[in-house]
Specification:
Order of helices and strands of chain B: HEEEEHHEEHEHHEEEEE
Distance between the termini of chain B: 33 Å
Strand order of the largest sheet of chain B: 10-9-8-11
Shape of chain B: globular
Strand order of the largest sheet of chain A: 1-3
Shape of chain A: globular
Radius of gyration of chain B: 18 Å
Number of helices of chain A: 13
CATH class of chain B: Alpha Beta
Low-confidence stretches of chain B: 1-22
Number of helices of chain B: 6
Helix content of chain A: 55-70%
CATH superfamily of chain B: paralog of FGE (formylglycine-generating enzyme)
Radius of gyration of chain A: 22 Å
Largest sheet of chain A: 2 strands, antiparallel
Number of domains of chain B: 1
Oligomer: heterodimer
Number of strands of chain B: 12
Number of domains of chain A: 1
Structural class of chain A: mainly alpha
Mean pLDDT of chain A: 85
Amino acid sequence: MKRIVVLFVFVAAHTIGFAQETEDYSQITKETLNYEEYRVKITRPPYGLEKVLGLISRIKETEDENLVLNQKDYMALSLREKFTYHMIHPETYSQNCDATPPVPESEKKIFGQLPDGFNDFSWSERQGKFFDANRDSVIALMSESINRSNRVGINYKRAIADINGREMIPLLISTYNKDHKDKDILTLLMLLMKNNEYTPFMTSASYKKLYAAPNQESSYRAYLVGNTANEELIIQRATAFYNGLPKKH
Amino acid sequence: MGFLKNISALALLICCFYPVQAQDKSSYILVPKGSYWIGKKQHGFNPRRQVTVDSFYIATCETTNRQFAAFVAATGYITDAERRHNALVFLPGLKEFEWHEDSTACWRFPNGVSVGGIDQKMDHPVTCISYNDAEAYCTWAGVRLPTLEEWEIASRAGAATDYFFGNDRSLLGQYANIWHGRDHLKADSSDGYMYTAPVGSFRPNPWGLYDVYGNVFEFCSGKVLADESAAIVHARGGSWWCSSASCSFFNSADIGRVNRRASFSNQGFRVAKR
């Protein structure tokens, strides 16, 4: 049997060689690479940034490459400083397959999912609990930062999705409308509608294409064409969704 | 050409009928020296291209708990997860790509003590080991991890398609232990296994390799990007956790990445001879 397998491997290798066509695979353009870089940029909150960066650099110098700031130093941080720490220092590892490769012409696409922003790291359970437990403060701090920088870093987008920050929809839309560049803001709007099971979105063709196609390669790579009609439709739906939310008194 | 095609078809036929139970779990196949096409058109990390490799022997199965236990018994080796208590495990109910850090999990208890040990799973692939741990095993066993290119050549078994069996994903369940649920909120054991399966439980590829897709992600040596961090390593083939709706890396084109110290319960390896 081993001989047959070896023979087959040999034959198959030659068969492949004969059967290959010369393919001219398209290159990812510089514009796409720049946009991919832009997509995964995080926002560094200003609150105690220098102090927090100092603490993080000391963590990384420890013998065993610890990932987590020790409890004493952590507890000594103010809430704003803790927010900065969590936003820039994920404490645990991330899974193998959450980094999707650059997609040709990604700058012209509205994806169904957000990109990965922390490479081989991700937020720990304690960090997720911090965002949940301090939801209102986290939303206020992110809003302040977005208003100042006109930018929603990938860490902010992920946090907004995680804490279901639907109150931020108007700010997200106004930020997107400033330059119509960051199409992941539109992705975030769709994720908020999806996570809240907003019926007009859940029954839409966009939802089916992005999140519910049974034979689609993977919803994590699915996208809509980034044209004006799709942009306007997403914004229109997200606005209607926001307007229908129960008002806080 | 006609003769070669006939021989290929015959060999493929023989391999397909080769009984699943009969494989030797510690055997290797020889991949001859030559030029092979790998990658996928328009794939950002793995574009279609021709590579030339020397001949190499690659294991037909993933490294098992039994094999890793022999290494630990001989050396007293302590894995990263045992020292750092930070293995990442899965329990149904977690959102997509979420893992639970379990201080009790390690290769002996791949999803934590509460889920149980490996006493009845010695023929399953070893998991909850880091890239560093896999390298330590290889040093002891006198083997090595396959390179990214070698893994892909062996996994493709001559195919230019996403899978060694073509592009029809619906056939995957015959060849791979994967997650068939729409999400990970509910347990999925529809293929007989929620977590790992004994190596060689599914049909092999035409060259006789088992579990090249699914079961566990398999560490490979080599870099995808020239400037990537030394802490980042790569693994291929997807795992029992991977599903069509989320991570669909159970194919011959995608390349996963993970920190070299990270220990996941869907991460293992297959070896190549030195």
